[in-house]
Amino acid sequence: METTEVVIAGGGPTGLMLATELRLAGVEVILLDGLPRRTGESRAGGIHARTMEIFDQRGLLDDLLPQGRVMQAGHFGALPLDFSDFPTRYPFMLAVLQSVIERELDRRATELGAPVRWGSPVVGFEQDATGIDIEVSGPDGTRRIRAAYLVGCDGGRSTVRKLAGIGFSGTDATATGMLADVELTDPPAEPFFGLRRGAGDYSAVQFEPGWWRLVVQRHDLVMARGSTLTFEDFRKHYLEIAGTDFGMHSPRWVTHYGDAARQADRYRNGRVFLAGDAAHIHYPAGGQGQNLGVQDAVNLGWKLAIALRGNGSDEVLDTYESERLPVGARVLHNTRAQTALQRPGARVEALRDIMGDLIDMDVVRQRLGLMITALDIRYDTKGDHPLAGRRVPDGDLSTGEGDTRVFELLRSGRPMLLRLNGNQVSPGDGWRDRVEVVDARSRQERWAVPGVGEIAVPGAILIRPDGYAAWVGQDGSGLSESLGTWFGPAS
Fold first, then answer.
1. What are the backbone angles phi and psi of residue 268, rounded to the nearest 5°?
2. How many domains does the chain have?
3. What angle do CA 425, 475, 488 make, to 5 degrees?
């Protein structure tokens, strides 16, 4: 029987991101996918600021940025949201195909020793007190892999979730979205637009020279899950709503989806975890889904590594669900609201007029925009400092080795105690093998924190591998407790 530490079912962005996180920490990983090969299809079409920051934290963004299109605004229920003044290095949405992101993540996972094993669906498992035996199907029959943990990143119809007996509660579809990646004989003048008309809305975005993604959404139609949408069907629906088909031809991909919104009742069952679409599905309103999955993976990866190295407690693994389940629930909540805002009719139009006026107010625009971009997430953690539990800003720093940034210091994926401007709080010898200590000077006196405002640069920050502050302080009060909570007792 083959053995490893973690088996990941699903080779999409969530599974790939989790594999890279685990390999950075030296964890043995087997990454499986039931498909015979990568399809090249790209359901997701963009990433938001927090996901770009996460890719930056791991040195992945420089190669990715030139392959996408910068879009300064997003939307909430097709009402425009300006991101340009958000306190991040990436105050925009990057229109980039999921297939491009998968290619970059696949390359990194392979470099780190976790290539995808295709044609290898998980078909069963049994867990006990010391591990989990996973049954994997293949051309030569069923084989077994012994691991410490199994993570289902295998999509909305997750086999792992079903085998784990985890419920998937939510609401059924009431509308249908249809998508086609095509060439256009008579393309629109703008590289991106979205409009509402009649019983639906439609949009077009150019991802690559010559290739466009057309989307039409109908609120008077519910297509059965698993039914086929032909290119001619898509053309007919798009023409009916938009009044033109822009001369679409040569489709790469045609698909449809509904506005069903469901979430796993639990994200963990013993040694089994769920992440990405296996844990939550929703209408792609605001372009949040892929971002949510990548951020699930980054939250879970370092916690599994801590547990496997014998330092972290099982309670640390439980924080994956306690932190990420509410974030997923919030996304389902706001996508339901956005779907309602996009319905046709005089009553909704009145509501949209009022919402449009409200969004013109900075406080409303920022509240909605920071939620869509996930820049405002705050995890429950001890301490009353305004930065505690929030993502640490990418401040400009100077060290003995030269100028750098906070995110550049996070490339190793290790926990870090960042001591600023001469602060000398110490983690003690008991954690030095687990926590990197970095001394630096901030080149700014104040940092802008999304959802909070400007704060004075603190004396020291205990930064989790996912970039969130586990502890913030000046004199070390509470530091040992936070170190023990997240990274195990002193050795």
1. -145, 140
2. 3
3. 60
Q: Which residue type does 369 have?
A: G
Q: How far is CA 7 from CA 43, 274, 314, in A?
A: 25, 12, 18
Burial of 190 (0-12, 13-18, 19+ CB in 10 A): exposed
The single-letter DSSP state of residue 393 is P
Residues 362 and 479 in one domain: no
Tell me if the pTM is above 0.85. Answer: yes
Phi, psi of 366 (to 5 degrees): -70, -40
- C-alpha span between 142 and 18 (Å, rounded): 25
- Tell me, rounded to whole angstroms, the distance of Cα 263 from its chain centroid: 15
- 215 and 300 belong to one structural domain: no
Name the residue with tokens 């916690």: 303
Burial class (CB in 10 A: 0-12, 13-18, 19+), 387: buried
164, exposed or middle or buried, with CB in 10 Å at 0-12, 13-18, 19+? Answer: buried
443: containing domain: 396-487
Task: Say if residue 13 is in the same domain as residue 103.
Answer: yes
DSSP at 126: E
What is the rounded distance in angstroms from the CA atom of residue 61 to the CA atom of residue 271?
Answer: 32
Q: Position 117: which residue type? A: R
Q: For the chain, what is the radius of gyration of the CA atoms? A: 23
Do residue 8 and residue 132 come from a single domain? Answer: yes
**pLDDT, averaged in runs of 10, over the chain (491 residues):** 96 98 97 92 87 98 94 88 96 93 96 97 97 94 96 97 98 93 92 84 87 92 89 95 94 92 98 98 89 98 93 91 98 95 92 96 97 96 93 97 96 96 88 91 96 96 98 93 91 80
Indicate the SS3 state at residue 273: strand
